[in-house]
Amino acid sequence: MSQQGYVAAPPYSQAQPGMGGYQGGFGAGPAQPLYGHYGGPPQAFNAPCLTCVAPGPMQSPPPPISSVAQQPFQTSPPPAMGQPQMPPGPQSPHMSPPQSPQANMHMAGPPMAGQSMAGPPMAGQSMAGPPMAGQSMAGPPMAGQSMAGPPMAGQSMAGPPMAGQSMAGPPMAGQSMAGPPMAGQSMAGPPMAGQSMAGPPMAGQSMAGPPMAGMGRPFPGPPPPGPGGFQQPGQFGGQMAGPQLGMPGAFPGAAAGMAGPPQKKLDPDSIPSTTQVIEDDQAKRGGQVFSTNMRGQAPPLVTTDFTVEDQGNASPRFMRCTTYALPCTADLAKQCQVPLATIIKPFASLPNNETPLYVVNHGETGPIRCNRCKAYMCPYMQFIEGGRRFQCGFCSCVNEVPVFYFQHLDHMGRRVDFYERPELSRGSYEFAATMDYCKNNKPPNPPAYIFMIDVSYSNIKSGLVKLICDELKTLLEDLPREDGTESSAIKVGFVTYNKVLHFYNVKSALAQPQMMVVSDTAEMFVPLLDGFLVNYQESKAVIYNLLDQIPDMFADTNESETVFAPVIQAGVEAFKAAECSGKLFIFHSSMPTAEAPGKLKNRDDKKLVNTDKEKTLFQPQKGVYEQLSKDCVAQGCCVDLFLFPSQYVDLATMADVPSHTGGSVYKYNNFQLETDGEHFLRDLRKDVEKSIGFDAIMRVRTSTGFRATDFFGAIHMNNTTDIEMAAVDCDKAVTVELKHDDTLSEETGALMQCALLYTTIGGQRRLRIHNLSLNCSSQLSELYKSCETDSLINFFAKSAYRAILNQPLKNVREILVNQTAHMLACYRKNCASPSAASQLILPDAMKVFPVYMNSLMKTAPLVGSTELSTDDRAHQRLSVMGMGVEDTQLLLYPRLIPLHNLDVGSEALPAPLRCSEERLIDSGIFLLENGHSMFLWLGQASPPDFIQNLFNLPSLAHMQGLMCALPELDNPLSKRIRSIISGLLEKRPNSMKLQIVRQKDKPEMVFRQFLVEDKGLHGGASYMDFLCYVHREIRQLLT
Ligand SMILES: [Zn+2]
């Protein structure tokens, strides 16, 4: 490569006529010739489709693709890299951890025998009919009863017992009913037949079903004029004065040729392949140990199997960056427009062969910190003056070493206890927190889980309520627990609701659970404290009893209206009263239309799609839910929402609280027990058993010269620095954008420390610390060499998905395309060797960036199609906000696995293919998954023996209707394929419903939208067309 001595021409970043100009001084190019290694081989891709496009306004469509020659994609071996190294640590440092390792928080205990059976029947108890209210009711009904005083803990109930209280068994003398209802609150039994009923909500459903064949459409019309001004990287703040781009899902200035007559096809193998990149990295780095002793070392790809050895920097499982070499100056950063960000997954699961985090205890005074910047003791603190002081790596402040912490230095200036102290030698570890880190200077109580089940008509009728109740009996045995403890410290509570809320007393001393009803949903409170949140093991019999009774109790309900905000409010109040944090599991079916706070109405309006008002479809309704989010975060109340809608529910609003409290939203459209039951239960099990921390607050500290400026995730920000999370589980990630405030030094690099204060599932207060050091360079080539496409696309997805809350989609799409072109043009200009303009030169580390970017723009939230359900779009938008790098990678580039040539004797998964129709063959069978959807695609000419072995059917033609599972057949092929599927389900954070589609059947269209290299079903270009378009943009930028 003849790159040395290449002198940059005058910066292209100056205003160009006809381009709307580059505003805001992206800075002059390098003042000096760029010398030295330029890292990864530039990827030359001859983009022939553009060779005859005259530079100029974008009205001119590209010429037919057939007019051009092809040239294979070129690669050359990377030159040697010279990276600064930290002194390498020993291969296996002998650590003597101060305490036992803490991590694997969910140690699922073995299920107990007989668990799935109903609890022991009580003597004299009649299980038929609504048992609670209907059972011998001693005393007058409670409704309207006037009870003085607010509900208070420990208050003993004067007056007659509640419905059900004096049921089977001896009277509960001296029973303490915490908190009687307030005056005017009606305490009613469960809904009785004959209650005013709004009929079952079946009529007029708008089916958010799959798009039908023929819905996909070509790009309409000729392309509009080119884009207007560029924006700063990653900023979607202002309105862009761009041209009007009315095309759904189209990138700005989409090539009109695409809708034209069939073109001679280019060899798709000539453009960079994601599957190849993944395979190559696996071949090169798979199975190896990645030691984190080196600053700025880019880890293997997220898709590669590797082992991490923590030697002073956080594992890439916890922190990944868009680049591992930050540009030294803000000018350089502006010039390249490559977003600088780190994606932090503080509770990431570690494989069994990696060491869990050690817990460090610095005693009563708490963790040692820098006096000035408050950074915690870490490998970046330098001990000086014989060990009496340490200089902070973040702010350079010199601090005294406390006497108890003093240690001598060895001849290299390193403390002699270096390897015995995780906080000196490791990238990630935990500190035991002192009272100073606890609310009200009191140690926290263990968290609680409240299960809140919507028992309105549709959930009862679908069998969902019974399914949940049955499952909870076994599931609760698997609540997460601290290492070394016998049972989970997590307390559990139960609520059912429709228009009113039913609370249950499941105190272990009771023979029967007791129900209390709160129908005044405007002023929600919890009518009992003692007995509401209980230890599952202690109260197991009563809980079994309750879970057996709930489905029967509401079996005859006609109530179809529900409340929602009061349900969350009730959960928060319960946690407040119990002084704990925790999680609400809400199982809900419909839009909350009952008269209560947070009542919603249908505001879905497809006419807004592709208008400037489309953003309102994504915006939550303000008011009640906004305040609820704040209340939840303040109390450490995480909300997980399991939705079972049959029509629009205003998901954007209903999911607002979950998406600000570290929660998850699961959605099962038109839930049917047979086809969706197992899918839902897998999600529920994974969710309940997840390792998780509560009542968390996270801060990212940086060394001088740059700082964290923006944050994306299922989080709440009260100020500009503290990331508040009611809970954070092993799958949630926060994406943090970094900006310069000064020049960074190549010598010292850039340091980051993420500190997460949280409450463990056992109720301990802890600080989890992740440290990461990056390189800094005044040469852009270093930055491009150290980029990570998977992290970049995570950042772009989250920033774009946030931007659509405030901006027209077309502007957001435009910014994405422009920034893509700009990043690549800057590389071409400053880092690549001179070559013909017709060649598209991509940085090695970003060579498949365009396919991800194009896929992102075709996702439901960004595509702007009236054929997509508003709730589905809002759901995907919110789900992505909390995702880590693995999840966004898989979502935007699904795995397409050929199964027809499967070697049933091999454990290896067949190599995935590129996601394009080109790769499908009539005689083939393929599995496709993206972490959220899973398909088994059967070609028309699938081998009959294959079909026989898999389905026990003589041919495809015998297949009836939609299938969602493979029969369990006793032959090697069936076993192997089912094991591949269950292996994938095991690996992903979410469950996936298997959809079996036959080639050319209608449902195949749903499958096809996941072939992301092809033209989008709802708009959006093919990968090839997008690449050609981007190339043209780059050429314009370079003119
Ligand atoms: Zn400091």
TrEMBL record:
> For bias kind Low complexity, which ranges apply?
197-218, 241-262
What are the alphabetically sorted keywords of the record? Cytoplasmic vesicle, Protein transport, Transport
Region Disordered, as annotated, extends over 60-273
Instruction: Tell me where in this chain the Sec23/Sec24 trunk domain is found.
Output: 444-688
**Principal location class:** cytoplasm
Cellular localization per UniProt:
Cytoplasm, Cytosol; Cytoplasmic vesicle, COPII-coated vesicle membrane; Endoplasmic reticulum membrane
Ranges annotated as spanning the membrane:
none
* A GO CC term assigned to this protein in UniProt: cytosol
InterPro entries per the record? ADF-H/Gelsolin-like_dom_sf, Beta-sandwich_Sec23_24, Gelsolin-like_dom, Gelsolin-like_dom_sf, Sec23/24_helical_dom, Sec23/24_helical_dom_sf, Sec23/24_trunk_dom, SEC23_SEC24_subfamily
Sec23/Sec24 beta-sandwich domain spans which residues?
693-777
Bias regions of kind Pro residues — which residues?
Answer: 75-100
Amino acid composition bias (Gly residues), ranges on this chain: 228-240
| Homology family | Belongs to the SEC23/SEC24 family. SEC24 subfamily.
List the protein's name.
SEC24 homolog D, COPII coat complex component
Biological classification of the source: Eukaryota, Metazoa, Chordata, Craniata, Vertebrata
